[in-house]
C-alpha cells in the first residue's frame, strides 16, 4: 500500500494541480516519461538487477504504480520548471536528479527496493541523469516546434 499511496496517489494529487496550470505537458512529455520509466524498470526487474518490494504475482505491477506515478509526475514537474519558470536549467537538472536519486536512496534504506550484486546506486544515479537528459532533449525539440510557449 505504501508504494501505491506514496508512489502513485500523492504524486497524482500534485499532477492534477499541475495539469490545471500546464495541460500541454500531459499530452507531450508526460507520456514519454512514463514510457521511459516502464521500459527501464521492467528491463531492470526482468534482468534481475533490482527488485521492487514484491507486491503481486504479476511482475509488471511491481513497478507500474511508480512508473505511472512518481516517475511520470517528476518528469511533468521537470518539464514545467524548464519551460514555464525562469529557473536556471542547471539547477532544475540538479534538483530533479538529486531529488529522485535521494528518494531512491531512501527506498533502499527502508528496503522497498533491493539491488542485485551487479547493480549499485551509482548506476541508478546515471539512469536518472540519462532519463532527465532525454526529457530535456525532447523539451527542446517541442520548443523548436512551438508546442511549448
Describe the structure.
This protein is mainly alpha-helical. The chain contains five helices and two strands; from the N terminus they run ααβααβα. Strands 1-2 form a two-stranded antiparallel ribbon. Helix 1 runs parallel beside helix 3, helix 2 packs antiparallel against helix 3 and helix 4 runs antiparallel to helix 5. It starts with a helix and ends in a 5-residue tail after the last helix.
Q: Find the structural class using helix and strand composition.
A: mainly alpha
Helix count equals 5
Fraction of residues in H or I helices: over 70%
SSE arrangement, N to C: HHEHHEH
| Uncertain stretches of 5 or more adjacent residues | none
Task: State the assembly state of the protein chains.
Answer: single chain
The rounded distance between the terminal residues' Cα atoms is 39 Å
Q: What amount of the residues lies in strands?
A: under 5%
How are the strands of the biggest sheet laid out side by side?
1-2
State mean pLDDT (0 to 100 scale): 92
Rg estimate, integer Å = 15 Å
Total beta-strand segments:
2
Main β sheet profile:
2 strands, antiparallel
Report the principal-axis shape.
Answer: globular
Amino acid at each position: 500500500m505504501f508504494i501505491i499511496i506514496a508512489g502513485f496517489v500523492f504524486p497524482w494529487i500534485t499532477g492534477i494541480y499541475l495539469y490545471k496550470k500546464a495541460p500541454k505537458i500531459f499530452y507531450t512529455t508526460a507520456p514519454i516519461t512514463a514510457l521511459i520509466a516502464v521500459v527501464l524498470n521492467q528491463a531492470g526487474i526482468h534482468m534481475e538487477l533490482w527488485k521492487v518490494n514484491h507486491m503481486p504475482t504479476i511482475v509488471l505491477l511491481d513497478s507500474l504504480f511508480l512508473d505511472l506515478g512518481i516517475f511520470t509526475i517528476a518528469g511533468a514537474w521537470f518539464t514545467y520548471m524548464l519551460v514555464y519558470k525562469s529557473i536556471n536549467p542547471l539547477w532544475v537538472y540538479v534538483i530533479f536528479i538529486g531529488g529522485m536519486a535521494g528518494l531512491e536512496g531512501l527506498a533502499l534504506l527502508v528496503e522497498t527496493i533491493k539491488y542485485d550484486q551487479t547493480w549499485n546506486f551509482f548506476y541508478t544515479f546515471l539512469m536518472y541523469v540519462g532519463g532527465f537528459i532525454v526529457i530535456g532533449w525532447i523539451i527542446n525539440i517541442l520548443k523548436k516546434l512551438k508546442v511549448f510557449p
